Each structure stands twice: as C-alpha cells, then as structure tokens.
What we know:
Layout: E1 11-14, E2 30-36, E3 42-43, E4 45-50, E5 56-60, E6 67-71, E7 77-79, E8 99-101, E9 109-112, E10 118-122, E11 127-131, E12 137-143, E13 148-154, E14 161-166, E15 172-177, E16 192-197, E17 203-209, E18 226-230, H1 244-250, E19 255-260, H2 269-273, H3 282-296, E20 305-310, H4 312-323, E21 329-333, H5 339-345, H6 353-357, H7 365-372, E22 384-390, H8 399-411, E23 415-420, H9 430-448
Parallel strand pairs: 18-19, 18-20, 20-21, 21-22, 22-23
Antiparallel strand pairs: 1-2, 2-3, 4-5, 5-6, 6-7, 8-9, 9-10, 10-11, 12-13, 13-14, 14-15, 16-17, 17-19
Amino acid sequence: MHPNMPWDSTCIKVAELTPAGDQIVPGTETQVAGGKDASGQDWSVIFPSWTPQGELLYIGDQSNWWNLYLVTDSGEHVNLHPVEAEIGGPQWAMGRTAYALEPSSNGGRILTSFGGEFGIVDVKTKSYKKIDTGFSSHDRYGWTSAGSMYCIAYSGTKFPRVIRVDAATEKVDVIRVSMDPPVDSGYFSVPEKISYPTTKGEMCHGLYYPPTNKDYKAPAGELPPLLVRAHGGPTGAFFTSLDLKLQYFTSRGFAVLCVDYRGSTGYGKTYRHRLRTLWGVLDIDDCTEGVKHLGSKGLVDPKRTCIDGRSAGGYTTLACLTFTDVFQAGVSHFGVSDLEALMLETHKFESRYLDGLLAPLEAGGKDICRERSPLHHVDKLNTALGFFQGDEDKIVPPNQAEMMYEAIKKKGIPTMFVLFQGEQHGFRKSENIQKCLDGEFYFFGKVLGFKPAGLDLDLPIDNL
Length: 464
C-alpha cells in the first residue's frame, strides 16, 4: 500500500471465502486492525494468524511497542503481554515466524520472543513465562504436537544453532549448529548495550564492542582506533548475535560501535518513526555523537576513527564523511550517494520508501535529495573513502558507487573501488566476502598509517 511500508501502516482484513476458496463472499470483508488509530496515528500490524480455537492473533504497535494481541469474540483487542519490548520486526521479506502456537485444540499457549528472550504466553491466564535457554536471542519458531518447541538461537559468543526445548520439562537440546569451527572464544568481543545523549535532547542506543584478542595487549596508555558501523534499512537494527565480520576488526585491535540511530527498530514506534523526513540528519548526528561519547569515556582514540555501512548504512557512512569532519576514513558497501537516483531506480517494494524518510519528489523531495546527497557535495568531502559494490545490484545500482568514486578520485582524495562480478545487494561468494574484510582493513591501515599484520594484499588505492 504505497507509500506505506509494513512498519509504517498496515491493516488486517477478515472475509469469508466461497466453497471453492478462490473468491471472497461479497459483503463479508471487514477491516479488523491497523491503518490509523483513533488519534490519527499510523498503526502497523504484522504476523496475523488463527488460534486452534478460531480466534485471531496479530502483532500490533498501538501501545508504541510491537506486542501480541488477541481479538476476542466480542471484538476486544487484548494485549496478551503488555511490555516495553518488541516481538517481530520490520517485514523486509516473508516467511519468518515471530511466534508459534501450541498445536492442540485445547492448547492456549504461544511460544514467542519479547526483546529476544524465549518465553511462553498463556492465552487463558494472560501470563508470561521466560525460559532460560542459555542464548541471548531467538527467532523462527515452531511447536510440534509431540511437545517440542524449536527455534534458531543466537549468542554473542556462540554460532547460531537450531535448538529444541521440551515444553514439559524445559530441557534444551542443540539440534544443529550453523557452523562450529575451532575458534577460541578468547578472540571474541562481547558487546555491551549502551545509550548516550544525542542531539535535540534525545538518546541514542547501540552496541559497543571493545577490542579483544587473548594473544595481544595494547601498549600502556594507548587508546584503540574506533570503527563506527551504521546498519542498513534504514529501518533496521543491530543484534548481539555472533558476527565474525565484526569480530574480524575487534580481534585486530579496533573497538566497534554499532549505532542503532533514531529510526531503528526494537525501541518502540516513536523511536522507529523518529527518522521520518530526517534521514541524512539524525542518523549522522547519532553516529558522530557516539564517537564523542566513547571519546569522553576514554575508551577510544577520537583521532583514529573510521566508519562503514551497507546499503542504507553505506549512505549514512557517505553522509557522515561528507557533512562532518569526525572521521578519518570510511568504507561504503553498496551504499547510496544520490538519493533522487535511488528513488527513481530502486525496486518496486522500496520505490516509495523515501517518501516518508525524506519527502515525495513532487512535494519538495527533489530539493531535499539534492541537499542531503553526498554526490552533490563532494566539495565538502576531505576524507579517504573506499567502495565495495556488486555489478548486479538492483536495489542500489552500481552507478551509485561509481559516480561517487569518480568524483572523489577527480578531487584527489585517497579512494578505492572494488566491483564484484555476479554479486547483488550483499555479497554471497566466500572469496568476495573475504576480500571485502581484508580490503577494508588494508584500506584503513594505509590511511591511518599502520601495517595490517598477516595480510598479503595489494589493492590499488588512488591518490595515496
């Protein structure tokens, strides 16, 4: 329902089908939830389903948080577990399961995850019970008639795995590990959830990873360089699950700050909607204020700061480097440099996404796009910048990176451009993923003046 995205405004309708099941019986269609609430605020509803008793369940954010609701026979919408935490998330793709129903005609329990934890909601008593699985977050649920509950479980120090939890005894068994190479946890940095003050008297949230490597210790009195990471979406968020691409940097001496800038999910509707019309403003503020916060705490060296991001995070990376002087280097992975070009060329699903984040092109959006597009302000950019891009990307076409790269190279700023053949929006070939990691580390080393240890790589860097 353009221009609304699933996390902006959606609705649930109920209707009767003809016996053949291929048509709606005329006059039976009724909107049950969603759209706009009584105060005119947008209302996002996701994951509708029926209980074995024929009652409607859905996830809605009318309380400001995506909570689980039951529609009773009388039409009342009951929040089964009112809490300032969220279940579900932005619907970029279909097929995920944010909760699972007990598969019994007498069953009245729902397996789900509020804020990442594993728990069961009892529909009859409206009670909630958390089950400690030993993992920090869970996703994609299933519940069998044999009394086994399944999900994918995540941890900051363990690889994702499928687990089974016995509904009666709560015993946890690991069924399958995604991968389990012999990596000592002494090389893993454990994230700390942080919140810090940002512009307009508000708070920003994120994850801080200190540099961690059991074999090395920094020289006395030396603060680590900082890598700020901006997530994609931009209506996304970072999670505490083990990410080897992030641990690549923390194990090599970098501190990493993953910024859940205003507009991210997981912090309620008000926070999620905060980026409306202000993409390219608040996200920049939140990344730069994060550097200042960690610097004031004596945790990082503010004179050795880098930033990277993918897709929309790549845009925030480019914007931070163009419109501020906080960072010494940055790398954009398939990021956006020209916002108007993105609005005109991206795929159908996101073709009106920026109407809310910026403004419709026909209603002042062109001027806003030009004002906030790094490509049109290369004169302000004086920071080394690298690019990684797939040549088959349909979401952020390659010309977004190519135009920016050529403009920077012409200006004489150190830059690097790597184009991967056969790659799309996100790289899938292991050799390309490895080249991205090594290439980014190599680029930062050249710019910041250190030699990346154990790295046999020679990528061409212009103007260096």
